[in-house]
Amino acid sequence: MSLLEITDLKVHFPIKRGVVFDRTIGHVRAVDGVSLTIERGQTYGLVGESGCGKTTLGRAVLRLVDITEGQVWFGDRDLAGLDTETMRRERRHLQMVFQDPLGSLNPRQNIGSILLEGLQAHGIGGPADDQEMSQSERRARTLQDQRARVVDALERVGLSARALTRYPHEFSGGQRQRIGIARALVLRPDLIICDEPVSALDVSIQAQVLNLLEGLQKELGLTYLVIAHDLAVVRHVSDVVGVMYLGSLVEEASGDDLYETPMHPYTRSLMSAVPVPDPQVEDARERILLAGDLPSPAAPPPGCRFHTRCPWRQEERCDTERPELRTVRGTHKVACHYAEQILSGEIRPREEYAERIVHGTGAGAATATGTRSGSGTT
Ligand SMILES: Nc1ncnc2c1ncn2[C@@H]1O[C@H](COP(=O)(O)OP(=O)(O)OP(=O)(O)O)[C@@H](O)[C@H]1O
């Protein structure tokens, strides 16, 4: 059984107006029909530009925002249907690591008390109920046990018991993110949702934190949902990558497959914007410069959500019929009516996009072409 299976998840935030905000004049469709599955022990990377709904999806899994529709199967339980108290208890199995480690750690609490908080809230640790002992002895044993769990979590992230009495501001950004990870680990969860886990860190520290997450996954059999706008980060850690655009998944594939053969025009444009360290490759590759801004999720375009910016848009069908996320080969899925024909070059970019699809010459100077754009990024 998969650890997490999300089916047709929707999170629509009401837009309120009126003196006391009592009129709903519309909805922000932050997540609008996402289905995805995460196998136990795997990492699912979710990418997409700011505002596409990644964070809202992660928060919906934890029920930190209200789910409008859909299911979130965690093992054999649908989290979307749990009452608040049952969900609160279930949350020890699903933890979150946040983007901004400083913002998510209370500056007035020392690290010991930050890490103990979750254990105490869930009543974890201490002697079994059937052991006879006084209240005070039980309390002391519980605290001792909880402290041992906290120290174990700190050591696993490369810190020591010396951190217990110190405060968040006394640590570097990378260390604070380690503390954020320890806070999630202390509850020994099955799933950790990492929301932009390294984007607030210096590049030199990012790899260390990503390697730490990978090491912990192997040691503890953890499952991750990693949310990031940075394709390089997601590629580094993910078994499966999903690409989101305006509240929906437009493509999903194993990391290598997606990066070698991106099929959705949006994924291709995202990939083409990632710098490549090898200057020869960098010079020779395709660039797709998208036209226009991301439409508002309060008024998404009809048909394919991407049609307003798609260089390969085909009239009628793309404008009116919303493509399903369909399997094209193996585990590679794409939500585009014409993905295969675009990839093969059978469908060419529209005239008005001629200057927006750019090939390098290999000599550093880019030239524009309105003809077929190649079979993907290299
Ligand atoms: N509580 C809320 N109420 C109303 N709208 C919201 C709320 N939270 C998010 N949104 C809107 O939902 C959309 C998706 O936001 P979300 O933060 O999930 O995107 P994201 O892809 O994670 O972007 P970022 O990386 O910038 O956080 C945005 O238009 C955002 O303004």
Automatic annotation (TrEMBL):
Q: Which SUPFAM superfamilies match?
A: P-loop containing nucleoside triphosphate hydrolases
Which branch of life, at top level? Answer: Bacteria
GO MF term list: ATP binding; ATP hydrolysis activity
Is Nucleotide-binding included in the keywords of this UniProt record? yes
Q: Which Pfam families match?
A: ABC_tran (PF00005), oligo_HPY (PF08352)
Q: Which family does it belong to?
A: Belongs to the ABC transporter superfamily.
State what protein this is by name. Answer: Peptide/nickel transport system ATP-binding protein
Which species is the source of this protein? Nocardiopsis aegyptia
